[in-house]
Design goal:
The two termini are 39 Å apart. This protein has helices spanning 17-32, 51-54, 73-79, 84-87, 92-104, 138-148, 153-176, 185-195, 237-257, 272-276, 293-298, 314-322, 350-362, 364-381, 384-398, and strands at residues 2-7, 34-42, 59-65, 109-113, 129-133, 179-182, 201-203, 227-231, 262-266, 283-287, 301-304, 326-328, 345-346. It is built from 15 helices and 13 strands. Helix 12 (314-322) crosses helix 14 (364-381). By secondary structure, the protein is α/β, with parallel strands linked by helices. Helix content is 42%, strand content 15%. Helix 12 links the parallel strand 11 and strand 12.
C-alpha cells in the first residue's frame, strides 16, 4: 500500500515519549509499505531533521505553521461545533496543502497521528481509508485531568463545554476510521464504553529501542548512595502532577526510611514548580539532557507516581530495557501488561508507594530480580521491532488496497482566520 503519514510534528530529536512512539512505528510501517510523510513544524521545530526520515520514507514534507489564536467564548467558540482543543489546529492553508498532496499521487490510506488532525479528512477525501494512531484518547485524558487538577471555576465551565463537543467529535471520528491504534487495554475499554462499539481497534503498547536502551549501553555505574529517578517531559501536566503528589505526600515518608536519599528529576522544559524541587536536600533537577541513559544507570530505582492516565509511558519501557527497576502506580503502567513483584512493583496510595520504594532500595536481591525480569519482558514483548510488526499485521487485517471506507457524517468546520 501507499500511505500518507500525517503528523502534527516531526518526531525528532527523540526527546519526548510521544516522539519515540511516532518515529519507531512510522519506520516499521515504511519497511512494509510505501510511506510519504507530511509533518507540521511550529516555531521551526523539526526543520533540518528531514534526513532522519528520508532513509525509510519515500517523500518527506515538513510544513511550517502557527496555531490560530484561541477563540473567545462568545460568539466564535460557542458557535463552533469543533471542540476548542481541536479548533486550535484548524488551519485553512493546511487543508489546501493536504488536498494538493493527496491529489498528486494515489494513496490507499492516511495514517493520522492524534485526534487533532482528523478534522481534515471529513469534508473531503472520503474515499481514503483513515487510520488514527493515538498517543492518548483525548476525551479520557481530559476527564482525568479534570479529576486531578485544580481548575478555576471559569476554566471548569470552559472545560465542560469542550468535553461535550469532544465527546461528539470522538464519535464522529470513530465512524470515519478504518482503524484506530491505541496504547493499551485501558484506552480500549474507554473507547468501547463511551465512544464506539464498532470502530476497529489495534492495541500497540509503547516500547523501547533495545539497541539503544540496553544494560551495557552506558559505562555509568550505580550511584554509591540510594538514588531514585523520575524521567519525562517536565512541562507535561501528568508528570507535573506526579511530582506534586510525590513531594507533597510521599517524599518525606521515603526519606525517613532511606538515609542520604537522592532524587534525580530528568527531562526537558521543567516548569517553575518542578524547578523549585531543586531547593530540597538531595534533589537534582537536570532539565533536558543529551543522553538519559547515564541517569538511568546511576539510579537504583525509577519512580512513576502518575495519577493521570494517557500518554506514552515510555519511561517505564526504557527503564525495563536498560535495567533500572520500577515502582509505579497501576495507572502509570497501564497497557504494558507488567506483573507486580515480577517485573515491577505497584503502589496506589502515598504510604504504599513510600513502602514499596523503601523496600526496593533496601533489598538488593529484589532489585536484581526486578531488573532481570524487566529486561526479559522488554525483550519478549516491548521492542519496537515486535510492536511495529504488530502494527503491520493490523493493517493487513483491517485495510485492503482500493477498498473505500463507508461514508461518514461530516463535521461542519468553522475555520478561524490566521492572525
Amino acid at each position: 500500500m501507499r500511505i500518507l503519514a500525517f503528523y502534527p510534528y516531526l518526531p525528532w530529536p527523540l526527546n519526548r515519549g510521544a516522539y519515540h512512539r511516532a518515529y519507531h512505528l512510522l519506520k516499521a510501517l515504511a519497511q512494509k509499505h510505501t510511506v510519504d510523510l507530511l509533518a507540521l513544524s511550529e516555531n521551526a521545530e523539526g526543520i533540518g531533521f528531514e534526513r532522519n526520515f528520508t532513509d525509510f520514507c519515500d517523500r518527506v514534507y515538513v510544513r511550517p505553521f502557527r496555531h490560530p489564536e484561541w477563540e473567545r467564548l462568545f460568539p466564535r467558540r460557542l458557535l463552533n461545533p469543533l471542540p476548542s482543543t481541536v479548533a486550535h489546529w484548524t488551519i485553512p492553508s493546511l487543508s489546501a496543502e493536504l488536498s494538493r498532496l493527496l491529489s498528486s499521487r494515489h494513496y490507499d490510506a492516511v495514517h493520522v497521528l492524534d485526534l487533532v488532525l482528523a478534522q481534515y479528512l471529513f469534508a473531503e477525501h472520503r474515499g481514503l481509508a483513515v487510520v488514527l494512531d493515538r498517543t492518548r484518547v483525548d476525551l479520557q485524558y481530559q476527564l482525568m485531568e479534570h479529576q486531578r487538577l485544580n481548575f478555576s471555576l471559569r476554566n471548569r465551565f470552559l472545560n465542560f463545554e469542550n468535553y461535550a463537543k469532544l465527546w461528539f467529535f470522538e464519535k464522529q471520528v470513530a465512524r470515519r476510521c478504518a482503524l484506530q491504534v491505541l496504547c493499551g487495554p485501558d484506552d480500549e475499554s474507554f473507547v468501547r464504553k463511551y465512544i464506539s462499539q464498532s470502530v476497529p481497534l489495534a492495541i500497540i503498547p509503547n516500547g523501547v529501542d533495545l539497541d539503544f536502551f540496553h544494560c551495557d549501553s552506558s559505562t555509568e555505574t550505580r550511584a554509591s548512595e540510594p538514588t531514585i529517578i523520575f524521567c519525562g517531559a517536565m512541562d507535561y501536566n501528568p508528570n507535573v502532577d506526579a511530582l506534586r503528589w510525590y513531594f507533597s505526600e510521599i517524599h518525606d515518608q521515603l526519606a525517613r526510611q532511606i538515609q542520604n536519599l537522592r532524587v534525580l528529576i530528568v527531562g526537558k522544559d521543567p516548569v517553575p514548580e518542578v524547578k523549585s524541587y531543586a531547593d530540597l536536600t538531595g534533589v537534582t533537577v537536570t532539565g533536558g539532557v543529551p543522553d538519559v541513559r547515564p541517569y538511568y544507570k546511576r539510579a537504583w530505582l525509577q519512580i512513576v507516581p502518575l495519577r493521570i492516565g494517557g500518554g506514552t509511558r515510555l519511561k517505564i519501557a526504557e527503564s525495563l530495557g536498560i535495567g533500572t527497576p520500577v515502582v509505579s502506580t497501576p495507572i502509570g503502567a497501564q497497557g504494558l501488561d507488567l506483573r507486580h513483584e515480577h517485573d515491577i512493583l505497584y503502589a496506589d496510595t502515598a504510604s504504599e508507594f513510600a513502602a514499596q520504594a523503601a523496600r526496593a532500595l533496601h533489598d538488593v536481591a529484589l532489585r536484581n530480580r526486578l531488573e532481570q525480569n524487566g529486561r526479559d519482558s522488554a525483550e519478549k514483548r516491548l521492542s519496537w521491532k515486535t510492536l511495529g510488526a504488530n502494527l503491520c499485521r493490523a493493517y493487513d487485517t483491517h485495510l485492503h488496497p482500493n477498498r473505500a471506507p463507508s461514508a461518514a457524517q461530516s463535521i461542519p468546520a468553522a475555520e478561524p482566520v490566521l492572525r
